[in-house]
Amino acid sequence: MTMASLAFDPFADDALANPFAHHAGLRDAGAVVWLERYGCFGMARYAEVRAALTDWETFISGRGVGLSDFAHEVPWRSVSLLLETDPPVHSRTRGIMNKVVSLSTLRAVQPMWQRLAGELVATLVGSGPFDAVPHLAEAIPLAIFPQLVGLRDGGDEHLIPYGTAAFNAFGPRNRLLEQSLNQAEGATAWVMESCRRDRLKPGGLGEQIFAAADRGECDETEAERLVRSLLTAGVDTTVNGIANLIHAFAEHPEQWRKLRAQPDLARKAVEESLRWGGVIQTFFRTASRAVEVAGTTIPEGSKVLLFLAAANRDPRHWSEPDRFDITRSASGHVGFGFGIHQCLGQMVARFEAEAVLAALIAQVAEIRPAAPATRRLNNTLFALGTVPVELIAA
Fold first, then answer.
1. Domain total for the chain?
2. 24: exposed, middle or buried (C-beta count within 10 Å: 0-12, 13-18, 19+)?
3. How far is the C-alpha of 300 from the C-alpha of 363, rounded, in Å?
4. pTM for the whole thing?
5. Tens digit of pLDDT for each residue in 220-242?
6. Could you tell me the CATH number of the domain that includes residue 379?
């Protein structure tokens, strides 16, 4: 089988600003394509992307989930013990974190999150046009997450610049990465210091991670890195997920009316926004062995770019995939990845989004666009820079 060789640059500004415009071409070019600019393979169809995410032994994460190959390059910071390791290390560290970030823990704090979301929405309803990114999508996670982890008071403004740099670092060393690393220099130092045991407040998830170190499940340095992984996983994806959810309903008022008429569709609405919105666009894997995919041989050591958002709109798997439909069963989407490396913060993101949605359903008759939304370019995330809206009271 002849594999398509493409000059397409998925990290060019125009591609990052509107990646969905290029996804059909990627999918139609073949199950596996060659991306000339970066000398790597790409997959954009649902079946192949999900299979690669599931087959962690062949498509490994331990050599980096970005373009950089840790077998040949030194990462910009110590590697994530969750995202950038494979079993047995990953099995051990993920086991620690699954106990710390448990469903029972999150359900216990959910009423507080719902109250915070309700109070914040109440201040915005009927107040006229505002930007939903800083005033809602960022405000909720920054009110919730530092307290959940047990971060010291002050410095929350560093979390988003740090996350922006971390997600930019999964792409090439382009202008976006250089800019975000420069802007996050102080934020990175603050995060590294804040993850130390003596800087954390008692009662948070951070304290529980260090308790695992005391039990011998990890060492002190690993515990610090696991706390840092929480900060990467739990802020940027949640901020952009909430912003995307609000933007989706502002652009699809008929879906908002449907949700207010049937509030029990809220959980489906969150999942559909994750599938449709494509917050996490791409992640890389590295082939640990020569492997054949759909008639194409991928040599050992090859980088493979998985287009998660393109897979989530693949018409080979989804009916009318470009349509935002809150009645759709979006189960099986790869918006948070899939398999053993799926996003640690996914339940935090879901619960926060559900809290915001519940507050909006109760108080808001219409989410009205006040001006066109703008994008904030990122090598990995489909991020929103502004979402100007007006909340019309119920």
1. 1
2. middle
3. 55
4. 0.95
5. 999 999 999 988 877 888 999 99
6. 1.10.630.10
